[in-house]
Design brief:
GO terms for molecular function: DNA binding; DNA-binding transcription factor activity. The chain is an alpha+beta fold and 106 residues long. The protein has a single domain, classed as Winged helix-like DNA-binding domain superfamily/Winged helix DNA-binding domain (Arc Repressor Mutant, subunit A), CATH 1.10.10.10. Helix content is 51%, strand content 13%. It is built from six helices and three strands; from the N terminus they run H-H-E-H-H-E-E-H-H. Helix 1 runs antiparallel to helix 4. The relative contact order is 0.22. The mean pLDDT is 92.
Length: 106
């Protein structure tokens, strides 16, 4: 039986991510909270940082963050773990993540 986390994940090259896509991913309060949680503690499971929304909505949030180049996900046993692609994202959009994280803590 295949694992529910067996689906291969796509992580875009950061040069393919537009400024508008990056800003759009960070403008949602749920996604911003997820990013802030990963900035504090990388390597958390989806369940640990999942916003208080339905599972389909949470999956969509994870997909948007991954497509915007913010999130790296990998499977570990039956869990899907998450971390920010901080260095790569900061190189592509200097200062943007810092501004978003400052807003998240206000």
């Amino acid at each position: 039986m295949a694992s529910r986390t067996a689906t291969p994940l796509e992580h875009p090259a950061l040069e393919d991510v537009t400024f508008a896509e990056a800003c759009d991913a960070l403008r949602d309060p749920h996604r911003l909270a997820m990013v802030a949680a990963l900035a504090r503690e990388p390597g958390q499971s989806c369940g640990a940082i999942m916003p208080p929304v339905s599972k389909p909505a949470a999956s969509r949030h994870f997909k948007i963050l991954r497509a915007a180049g913010l999130l790296k996900q990998w499977d570990s046993g039956t869990q899907r773990l998450n971390a920010l692609r901080r260095e790569e994202f900061d190189a592509r959009f200097p200062g943007l993540l810092d501004l978003a994280l400052a807003e998240a803590t206000r």
